[in-house]
# Entry
Amino acid sequence: MDTIKRMINGVGSAAMLIAMTKTIVDEQDIKQYLTDAGYKYAVTELGGNTVKGDFQGRATKALIGAVLNTHLVEKTSYELHAVLHAAMDAGMGSMLNVSRAADMSVKMAVVRKDHWVAVAIFGESAVYYTTNHERAGLGVMHI
# Structure
């Protein structure tokens, strides 16, 4: 837990750290620290293809579902707007220069503390299976 504590200095680093976990054990350790430190969080994973635009639509629906189901935000225009704006910023970083026909596989993490919310996206994209490479994006907004 001391290592996790040293790596997290706010909602942005917390969200990115969760999004980058590769094992459920690592994810659970970070979630436990965040719970103990007074953070709220939601995590979801998804994949899709960018050619039909289905990935972006599915990502938005998964994100909204995750934050509402975990009660990370209230169902108000102010709170949802902040999450969606942070997600757009994270998407710009993670989707930069992605081929229009790429397959995407990502983990999205949303972390909130007080009036700050962060959305982190981390995963892989590929046009062909041998061209996989990692992508990341982060957005932070005030609610």
User: Anything to note?
Assistant: The chain has one domain: 2-142.
